[in-house]
Amino acid sequence: MSSCDISNAHWNFLPRILVNRLHHVSCEPHWEKYVNDGWREHNRLIALLGDGDFYRTWCVDPQNDGERDQKKNLLTILLNKKIEDCHRNFLYRRIRGAFPITFGIVEDIKRNDHRNLSKQLHRFTADAIAAALLEVQRKGIAAIPHVDGLICQQKDRERVCKAIGKQIFEQTGVCCAVGGIRYSPLTEDEKQALAFDEIAASDDGMSYDEWEARRAVKTAAMLKLTRFIRRVVGVTAFDSTW
């Protein structure tokens, strides 16, 4: 049997909490700047959560596995701590400084009862796992829920991980890793093109035509990913903030 667990599970749903607040205030007068700034912050947040190892981002030495595990435990605890305890922690203050609107909302949710946030995050995670379980069962794949993931046979592991990743993406816009496998709505060619560094063609051994072709695929991939995420968050205001 193999476990398919969501990396930085509850953190992946912070963009959804941010989106919910932006939807709520978007029609209110005098909130235009807050909403525009919120969408810019949203874009940065999903980019951070969807690229590399989220926990290593906050490490002094990102290559240190021990420090990475410490940051993972600490960040998980901080989401569930009382606000005043969080404010005493340097790492929390650092993250809050990077994403002030998101954590302003988080603290609003936790203000009367710090457990209110974890209740929402647990529900979002459970909904994603339940939807992924239903999807794989329809395909004849046996799986059972386990904490923040699913357990399945090793031969089905990749498909189950991608099914969970797909549900997280459709709820949040985050291309998260599940069991070390990162979901993306892009094809392999599109993902490679998205990572393409647009250096001069002569510096990479490419002909000009090859360079232009790869650049065109990269542009198309960026537009495709933006459309996918825009559909997830469901607002036209999203387009103007990229």
What is the element layout, followed by pairings?
Blueprint: E1 2-5, H1 14-25, H2 32-49, H3 65-80, H4 83-87, H5 90-98, H6 100-110, H7 115-138, E2 143-145, E3 149-152, H8 157-172, E4 177-178, E5 181-182, H9 188-194, H10 208-233
Antiparallel strand pairs: 1-3, 2-3, 4-5
Helix pairs in contact: 1-2, 1-6, 5-6, 7-8, 9-10
- Count of spatially separate domains: 2
Widest beta sheet: strand line-up: 1-3-2
Terminal Cα span: 42 Å
How many DSSP-defined strands?
5
- Beta-strand percent range: 5-15%
What sort of overall outline do the alpha carbons produce when their principal axes are compared?
A: globular
Which sequence of SSEs, written as H and E, runs from N to C?
EHHHHHHHEEHEEHH
Mean pLDDT: 85
Helix content: 55-70%
The main sheet comes to: 3 strands, antiparallel
Low-confidence stretches: 235-242
Radius of gyration: 19 Å
Structural class: mainly alpha
Number of helices: 10
Question: Could you explain how this protein is built, in words?
Answer:
This protein has 242 residues and is mainly α. The chain has 2 domains: 2-183, no CATH class; 184-242. It is built from 10 helices and 5 strands; from the N terminus they run βαααααααββαββαα. It has a 3-stranded antiparallel beta sheet with strand order 1-3-2, with helices on one face. Helix 1 runs antiparallel to helix 2, helix 5 (90-98) crosses helix 6 (100-110) and helix 9 packs across helix 10 (208-233). It is globular.
